[in-house]
């Protein structure tokens, strides 16, 4: 009756969210007197999971699962959960895991709570705190089914080391043709650049930058910080930056550690989308810009003056701390 | 092609969020309700299929009588008819069960739902509908074409996109990109007039287990004021980010 988590990997390497999930799972396991099992799909070295309290890994190695396929992956995780008799199943809030989750919930007849931001308030009844109303409120949700599925919100639970000994077991789910009815025709991915979803720091530009030709300093600031670049909706609509950079309510959500907004006034829809970021820095010439109301740190000034200066200061800082 | 568009009736983004009844319910007083933004993109794409490929478009909403104005708006945008399942949309699985029943009864080829609603942020209804009916499902859909019995859809992934193909019947969870913002349909006078005589069929819900329950809501703690740093003192910002916030 262990707790099962899906430890996502990319190109054979476990993603950082897998260790966050393990940390979360281990806490509950200790509270309820059970253990943590992870299931991985085509992952290479999984031993690091032991550092975060995972005592068993069900390793799936299957060529048919080389390309991501939600139904096949959901079926695989479902079978792993059933094998373990898991009553609590955890996934991360990544694009692929959130695609899998509803399918997995139905397959397991599990009540499903997404955007979970903390350890359960109680296990009997089983109540979890989750984000709702586009991050303007929390909802306390009770899951009443026997099996419970949780998607843990990005960046909501840190890494907690709790080393145990690990046993790895090969696991071969039984999959059929129907699992692969949705086919991948092609994949287009920008490589070498950190994505907004994975970035710890995001540097974002708005209309205050006046034009696409002025984005050089945004890219440079991002580069110094190893950050992903993003933009506000008007900037994306104007075609100054690619749609893939649009963050906000109808764009990508941001849940990074640091979000730096340059020349963005802070429309409600924008803030809703980036609210999950831990620390917000706002640089804007207008002291009345609504964004300052939600910012942690702010600089009232001209971006064309502040950003280049900030880049120099950060370069010096990085040189000192490398 | 028979298309079913699922729409949610949600508070407008700029609404004040408050709770009543011991914080167990959302306070609807004075709140403007709209079609969930993610659903609107899908609805416009469905209208495109209607105009270019002769598809029929039905909208479905799970809600009580107060959602009718929102449903009429979808009809004004161009849907042919609507179905309202007369029930409080208490839980994602419950809503999915209701929609699955409607899909089964109507024999739809394509079901377009919004990926996530603004209020519950569950992100689960489209996938659950597909799983309940054993239909193909594509999430985070930013583009869809249909040719005969085959659909080609674009899925947004981290750092890029995937082109997927699947046969109908198909459920897609749409978002911005399935049509461009500038192409979003808004109701015009003719649409509003026509909507008045379009059919909204009210059906009773089917029995379904509710396996989650909202116990209560809570508003986040008020934020402390921003720390302002002078443009002449950016060393201080770097210092705060490193030593205080610990993010660099």
Characterise the protein shown here:
By secondary structure, chain A is an alpha/beta fold. In chain A, 27% of the residues lie in helices and 27% in strands. Chain A has seven helices and 18 strands. Chain A has helices spanning 16-32, 70-84, 95-108, 216-225, 233-237, 268-274, 303-321; strands at residues 3-6, 9-10, 13-14, 36-41, 56-60, 88-92, 111-116, 122-123, 126-132, 137-143, 148-152, 167-170, 183-189, 201-205, 228-231, 258-262, 279-284, 297-300. In chain A, the strands form four sheets. Chain A has a seven-stranded parallel sheet, sandwiched between helices. In chain A, strands 15-14-16-17-18 form a five-stranded parallel sheet. In chain A, helix 2 (70-84) crosses helix 3 and helix 4 packs parallel to helix 7 (303-321). The longest helix of chain A has 19 residues, at 303-321. Chain A is elongated and about 60 Å long. The mean pLDDT of chain A is 96. In chain B, the strands form three sheets. Chain B has a nine-stranded mixed sheet with strand order 11-10-9-12-8-1-6-7-13, with helices on both faces. Chain B has a two-stranded antiparallel sheet with strand order 2-5. In chain B, strand 10 and strand 11 form a beta hairpin. By secondary structure, chain B is of the alpha/beta class. Chain B has a single domain (2-219), classed as HUPs (Rossmann fold). Chain B has helices at residues 37-53, 68-77, 92-106, 125-133, 189-195, 234-244, and strands spanning 2-6, 9-11, 19-20, 25-26, 33-35, 56-63, 81-86, 110-114, 136-147, 150-157, 160-167, 170-174, 200-203, 212-218, 227-228. Chain B is globular, with a radius of gyration of 21 Å. Classes of the chains: A alpha/beta (322), B alpha/beta (248). Chains A and B meet through helix 2, helix 3, strand 7, strand 9 and strand 10 of A and helix 3, helix 4, strand 9, strand 10 and strand 11 of B. Strand 18 of chain A pairs parallel with strand 15 of chain B, so a sheet runs across the interface.
């Amino acid at each position: 009756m262990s707790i099962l988590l899906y430890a996502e990997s990319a190109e054979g390497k476990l993603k950082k969210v897998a260790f966050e999930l393990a940390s979360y799972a281990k806490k509950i396991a200790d509270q309820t007197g059970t253990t943590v099992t992870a299931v991985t799909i085509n992952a290479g070295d999984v031993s690091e999971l032991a550092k975060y309290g995972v005592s068993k890994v069900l390793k799936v190695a299957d060529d048919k699962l080389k390309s991501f396929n939600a139904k096949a992956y959901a079926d695989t995780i479902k079978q792993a959960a059933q094998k373990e008799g898991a009553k609590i199943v955890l996934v991360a809030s990544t694009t692929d895991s959130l695609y899998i989750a509803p399918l997995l919930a139905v397959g397991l007849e599990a009540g499903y709570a997404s955007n979970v931001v903390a350890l359960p308030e109680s296990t009997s009844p089983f109540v979890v705190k989750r984000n709702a109303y586009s991050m303007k409120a929390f909802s306390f949700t009770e899951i009443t089914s026997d099996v419970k599925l949780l998607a843990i919100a990005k960046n909501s639970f840190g890494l907690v080391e709790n080393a145990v000994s690990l046993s790895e077991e090969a696991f071969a789910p039984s999959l059929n043709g129907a699992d692969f009815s949705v086919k991948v025709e092609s994949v287009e991915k920008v490589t070498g650049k950190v994505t907004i979803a994975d970035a710890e720091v995001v540097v974002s530009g708005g209309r205050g930058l006046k034009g696409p030709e002025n984005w050089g300093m945004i890219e440079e600031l991002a580069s110094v910080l190893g950050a992903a670049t993003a933009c506000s909706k008007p900037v994306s609509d104007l075609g100054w930056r690619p749609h893939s950079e649009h963050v906000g309510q109808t764009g990508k959500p941001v849940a990074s550690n640091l979000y730096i907004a340059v020349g963005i006034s802070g429309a409600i829809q924008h803030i809703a989308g980036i609210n999950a970021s831990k620390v917000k820095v706002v640089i804007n010439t207008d002291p009345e810009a609504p964004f300052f109301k939600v910012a942690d740190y702010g600089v009232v000034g001209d971006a064309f003056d502040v950003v280049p200066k900030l880049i120099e200061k950060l370069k010096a800082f990085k040189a000192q701390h490398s | 092609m028979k298309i079913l568009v699922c729409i949610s009736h949600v508070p407008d983004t700029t609404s004040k969020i408050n709770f009543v009844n011991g914080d167990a319910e959302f306070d609807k007083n004075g709140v403007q309700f709209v079609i969930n933004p993610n659903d609107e993109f899908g609805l416009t794409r469905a209208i495109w299929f209607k105009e270019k490929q002769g598809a029929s478009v039905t909208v479905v909403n799970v809600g009580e009588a107060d959602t009718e104005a929102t449903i009429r708006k979808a009809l004004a945008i161009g849907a042919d008819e609507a179905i309202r399942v007369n029930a409080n949309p208490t839980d994602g699985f419950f809503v999915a069960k209701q929609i699955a029943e409607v899909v089964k009864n109507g024999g739809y080829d394509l079901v377009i739902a919004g990926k996530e609603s603004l209020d519950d942020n569950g992100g689960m209804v489209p996938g659950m509908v597909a799983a309940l009916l054993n239909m193909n499902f594509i999430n985070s859909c930013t583009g869809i074409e249909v040719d005969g019995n085959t659909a080609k859809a674009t899925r947004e992934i981290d750092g890029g996109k995937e082109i997927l193909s699947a046969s109908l019947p198909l459920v897609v969870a749409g978002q911005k990109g399935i049509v461009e913002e500038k192409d979003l349909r808004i109701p015009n006078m003719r649409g509003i007039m026509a909507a008045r005589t379009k059919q909204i069929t009210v059906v009773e819900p089917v029995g379904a287990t509710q396996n989650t329950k909202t116990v209560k809501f809570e508003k986040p703690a008020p934020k402390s004021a921003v720390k302002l740093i002078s443009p002449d003192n950016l060393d201080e910002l770097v210092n705060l980010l490193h030593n205080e916030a610990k993010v660099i």
